[in-house]
Specification:
Elements lengths: L2 H14 L3 H12 L7 H35 L2 H36 L3 H21 L2 H25 L5 H17 L3 H17 L9 H26 L1
Helix pairs in contact: 1-2, 2-3, 3-4, 3-5, 4-5, 5-6, 5-7, 6-7, 7-8, 7-9, 8-9
Subunit structure: Homodimer, and heterodimer with other family members.
Pfam families: 14-3-3
Organism: Anabas testudineus
Length: 240
């Protein structure tokens, strides 16, 4: 096996052992080779970062809700500790996002040839800027949100011309972009419009659904529909 195969195998071992920090290191080294990644390599890279960032995002949410509870009680001493702890997690979040965004800019996007890869990496870029926007404030939040919007728009333009409406990457992009509108830009109407259009377009072309992506695509369509149900009931709740 060559160096690239070794790194991929190391990443798979790390995934099995649930040692995602090491999985990230292996896949980052593959990305650094400035080659177009295979679908398998691309997915390994995505899974590695998703787990590493996911753990910190979950921690941040828990700490933030504890902080809110303490604010209501007015416990100043505890609040100081909680805020410092939250900032520690935010530093880690910033570092991980910076890491993958750097790899995307320097290696992955410049080496991407296939339309599918370009959509995938621009979507990823949108996702990690969105994760930065989740906890940033002031100008930092504004900048992260703008970067996220631009990346998602680029990915969407490419997806419209390169991928069928039933393609799991195109559907996953619509799912995440609509969440961005809802959570980061506080635009439930735009979020619903985007999710509904993606869902309807996929339904209209269900016959283009390939065997291998059937499960992935239908799962994402279900998530789009779940969000639509939730968001429309939220909007009606606010109006009444």
């Amino acid at each position: 096996m060559g160096e690239r195969d070794d790194l991929v195998y190391q990443a798979k071992l790390a995934e099995q052992a649930e040692r995602y920090d090491e999985m990230v290191v292996s896949m980052k080294n593959v990305a650094g080779m400035n080659v177009e990644l295979t679908v398998e390599e691309r997915n390994l890279l995505s899974v590695a970062y998703k787990n590493v960032i996911g753990a910190r995002r979950a921690s941040w949410r828990i700490i933030s809700s504890i902080e809110q509870r303490e604010e209501n009680k007015g416990g100043e001493e505890k609040l100081k500790m909680i805020r410092e702890y939250r900032q520690t997690v935010e530093k880690e979040l910033k570092s991980i996002c910076g890491d993958i965004l750097d790899a995307l800019e320097r290696h992955l996007l410049p080496s991407a040839v296939m339309g599918e890869s370009k959509v995938f990496y621009n979507k990823m870029k949108g996702d990690y800027h969105r994760y930065l926007a989740e906890f940033a404030t002031g100008n930092d939040r504004k900048e992260a949100a703008e970067n996220s919007l631009v990346a998602y728009k680029t990915a969407t333009d490419l997806a419209m011309s390169e991928l069928p409406p039933t393609h799991p990457i195109r559907l996953g992009l619509a799912l995440n972009f609509s969440v961005f509108y809802y959570e980061i830009l506080n635009s439930p109407d735009r979020a619903c419009r985007l999710a509904k259009a993606a869902f309807d377009d996929a339904i209209a072309e269900l016959d283009t659904l390939s065997e291998e992506s059937y499960k992935d695509s239908t799962l994402i369509m279900q998530l789009l529909r779940d969000n639509l149900t939730l968001w429309t009931s939220d909007m009606q709740g606010e109006e009444s």
